[in-house]
Design a protein that fits this description.
The complex is a heterodimer of chains A (about 525) and B (about 190).
Chain A: H1 2-13, H2 15-18, E1 25-34, H3 76-88, E2 92-93, E3 96-97, E4 100-103, E5 113-116, E6 123-131, H4 132-135, E7 141-153, E8 157-161, E9 166-170, E10 177-183, H5 190-206, E11 219-227, E12 233-236, H6 241-260, H7 264-267, E13 272-276, E14 281-286, E15 296-297, E16 304-305, H8 309-317, H9 322-330, H10 338-345, H11 356-373, H12 379-400, H13 404-408, H14 413-424, H15 430-447, H16 455-462, H17 472-489, H18 491-498, H19 504-516, H20 523-534
Parallel strand pairs in A: 12-13
Antiparallel strand pairs in A: 1-10, 1-11, 2-6, 3-16, 4-5, 4-15, 6-7, 7-10, 8-9, 11-12, 13-14
Helix pairs in contact in A: 3-8, 5-6, 9-10, 11-12, 11-14, 12-15, 14-15, 17-18, 17-20, 19-20
Chain B: H1 2-11, H2 13-19, H3 26-31, H4 42-50, H5 56-66, H6 78-87, H7 97-115, H8 121-124, H9 143-152, E1 175-176, E2 179-182
Helix pairs in contact in B: 1-7
The chains are: A alpha+beta (about 525), B mainly alpha (about 190).
Chain lengths: ~525, ~190
């Protein structure tokens, strides 16, 4: 069993691959990122390829459709976004980049070539650092080198109709700005690849240069996989991180098997492109069928010539990095766990109830207010705000399908801190707090308008105030009833508690009692009484 | 290939004139380009385009005279011609191989001419990044200038940049539900 568990853990972390020292996995990435600028790269038609899937060919200028006589005009919004990304990835900015034509014939590319920056990209020689605690990789740190970062056009979208044997073409995506990023082949495990992609997604969202979504095609990843010194295999058609992970696993095993069978000189002797069909990688083309793109400098576009001062100016405009944000939240005065700190700093793509930025703002404001009204908070007390924001507030928002924006009007950080103060001061218990919080949020949801919240009044109405004077006889009777109820349904359980075999079960009884009294009595009181009744030392 | 020829031709046209086109373009060398008389009708344009101003063969011959040491370009092989046809999306069936070979040989020779134009010392110092039609004295942009460019750029109200202002598929021979339609299957996998 132990062995089995160890193997599973190894697989999960990717160590399964790195431990096979005789066959070293080497990966590099090519990532295409759609910029979320208002307009396209070489025209000012609207850049909304995903939103306009149901209205084909709506956002298409004459240039996007490549009508004769049209010329490209660079949209500098895209240049600025590329510079932000380049500097965030510690790249050297090319102050004199230019565009090339990459020729190939395809229905969704009406120009017959793609405008790209193959030979003189806007940035080169950068890197991204991964850390074991923040990025969940299997080494303390890992530096991934970046070869280059270039601006280029996206193509239109082809929809294949296999029955009619036709292709339907939508040019809404034609000329949408892309950044192509090429990493060095520095990845040696799958968790490193996945960590890089996730961190990159968060980066583009933090910079607000892209939606960063793999599922919508805003980010498209190709992976180059090789084993030892054999030529690389390029993997395409990888729509999400699980496909990426599974495709690399499959391809690694396939190449290792070829090497083991002694067929490497025959089957791994040249570069190859393979696709992922969900189960296996399949050959798309080999070196013999490599496309000759016939690059040439675009004669209609000038060089992108930038003043050296722009590097510092753009750097000054960048938001603080997520790594720095996470680290600062893990330190004094917040002392958050890495999990909670990440929750506040890593952009969540799917949650409609709140964004990480909104939660972080709510938390930081609440924390500051709470700290101001409570001098000398202990380490444990400082965590109360994070616990109630992250565990309770967000949990309830998800449950009630309420957005943080909606509730802030009636329940701003000031009111939230007033609520936490009730718990901190012992006026209501944690159980009472949970009842009150759910009641407040449900009230906001039902009223759908701003609600005047009088917390002391609500505590009174809900009868959740912790009782200062306790009637022992009444409580004892309550506890006896609970023991009888439990004994009736599960006598072994009470026996187990009595024998002290399962000490946590005492808390089970306390929980039942707290629920019945809505947390008006402190749990320690119940513990004392249950121990007395069950004769536990 | 024609695009390559056009591009190289335009970027180095002045030098070509100096070396190769002494007689035909004498006026350009000495007086610079000039605008001719205005076309009055479509017929004028057709006549202009139909009339031979210079002969490609003559140009290629004159180049050999200009540099007699030059070895004639080897004609492209059948294999190369098939590859070029495939790259250009053209049929490989029913072709006149010899005619294509002659045309390509001339084109390659022409490109050779362009690439071997002697440059002055000053010209050799040019940054090849600027080997294009646009001005060499590109003013470096500062951060605020880029911000201003972004702020002031506007969609062309008379043009096609306003979403839905025109129907792109109206110009297509076949379209269905605002999609362009391609009848033949296409390669599904490419970069």
């Amino acid at each position: 069993m132990v062995k089995f568990r160890n193997i599973r853990v190894s697989l999960k972390t990717g160590r399964f691959y790195s431990t096979r020292n005789e066959y070293k996995l080497i990966c590099g990435l090519e990532i295409h990122t759609q910029l979320n600028t208002d307009n396209k790269l070489f025209s000012l038609s609207t850049n909304a390829p995903f939103k306009s899937l149901n209205t084909p060919n709506k956002h298409v200028s004459h240039f996007d459709a490549s009508l004769p006589g049209t010329r490209p005009k660079l949209n500098y919004e895209c240049v600025l976004d590329a510079l932000k990304l380049a500097l965030s990835l510690n790249c050297n900015v090319n102050l004199n980049s230019h565009f090339d034509r990459k020729h190939y014939f395809y229905g969704d590319q009406p120009q017959g070539y793609q405008l790209t920056q193959h030979y003189s990209p806007i940035a080169t020689e950068g890197y991204m650092n991964l850390y074991t605690d923040i990025d969940t990789i299997d080494t303390p740190t890992k530096k991934i080198g970046i070869i280059q970062l270039q601006l280029e056009q996206d193509t239109g979208i082809s929809h294949y109709d296999n029955q009619e044997k036709t292709t339907m073409i939508d040019l809404n995506r034609s000329n949408v700005p892309l950044i192509e990023l090429v990493t060095k082949p520095d990845f040696t495990t799958i968790p490193q690849v996945i960590a890089f992609i996730k961190k990159y997604q968060n980066l583009v969202r933090n910079l607000d240069v892209s939606t960063g979504n793999l599922e919508t095609g805003a980010i498209r990843v190709d992976v180059n996989v090789s084993v030892d010194t054999y030529p690389r295999v390029e993997l395409k058609n990888l729509p999400n991180t699980s496909s990426i992970s599974n495709a690399i696993k499959y391809e690694y095993k396939r190449q290792v098997n070829i090497i083991k069978q002694g067929k490497a000189s025959e089957l791994l002797n040249c570069q190859e492109t393979r696709g992922w069909n969900g189960k296996e990688t399949v050959k798309l083309r080999s070196k013999e069928t490599t496309i000759d793109y016939r690059y040439m400098p675009d004669p209609e576009l000038g060089c992108v010539t930038l003043d050296p001062s722009i590097v510092q100016n753009v750097r000054n405009s960048l938001p603080r990095s997520s790594d720095d944000e996470i680290r600062s939240l893990m330190e004094e005065p917040y002392n958050l766990s890495v999990k909670n700190a990440k929750l506040l700093c890593v952009h969540n793509e799917k949650n409609e109830q709140y964004t990480s930025i909104e939660v972080k703002d709510f938390y930081l404001t609440s924390f500051d207010l709470f700290q101001k009204s409570n001098a000398k908070l202990s380490f444990k007390e400082k965590k109360i705000v994070a616990n109630w924001v992250i565990n309770e507030l967000l949990g309830n928002l998800n449950k009630l399908e309420l957005s943080l924006r909606e509730i802030k009007q009636s329940f701003p950080p000031e009111k939230f801190v007033e609520f936490i103060q009730l718990i901190h001061d012992g006026k209501i218990s944690n159980t009472g707090g949970k009842t009150l919080l759910f009641y407040i949020l449900n009230l906001i949801k039902e009223k759908s308008i701003s609600v005047e919240l009088n917390l002391p009044k609500l505590v009174n109405e809900l009868k959740i105030e912790v009782q200062s004077t306790i009637n022992d006889d009444e409580l004892l009777s309550q506890c006896k009833d609970i023991i009888d109820e439990v004994n009736e349904s599960d006598p072994k359980l009470i026996e187990a508690i009595k024998l002290g075999k399962r000490i946590n079960l005492l808390n089970y009884l306390v929980g039942i009692a707290m629920k019945k009294t809505r947390g008006r009595v402190k749990p320690t009181e119940y513990q004392r009484l249950f121990k007395f009744l069950l004769k536990i030392e | 290939m024609l695009m390559m020829i056009r591009s190289s031709y335009k970027t180095r046209s002045v030098h070509i004139v100096n070396c190769l086109l002494k007689q035909r373009f004498y006026t350009i060398q000495n007086k610079g380009a000039r605008i001719g008389t205005k076309f009055e009708s479509k017929q004028d344009i057709d006549d202009f385009l139909d009339s031979n101003k210079w002969d490609g063969q003559e140009l290629l011959q004159s180049s050999t005279e200009c540099d007699p040491s030059k070895v004639p370009t080897a004609p492209p092989s059948d294999e190369m011609i098939y590859k070029l046809l495939k790259l250009s999306g053209l049929s490989q069936k029913g072709i006149d191989m010899e005619e294509i070979r002659t045309t390509l040989t001339n084109q390659i020779q022409f490109i050779d001419l362009l690439q071997n134009v002697p440059l002055s010392e000053e010209e050799q110092k040019y940054d090849t990044n600027y080997a294009r039609l646009l001005p060499r004295d590109n003013k470096p942009l500062k951060y605020n200038e880029i911000l201003k460019l972004i702020e002031t750029q506007k969609k062309n109200k008379q043009g096609s940049e306003i979403s839905g202002s025109w129907n792109p598929t109206s110009l297509a021979t076949i379209s269905v539900n605002n999609y362009y339609i391609l009848k033949k299957g296409l390669l599904k996998n490419r970069n």
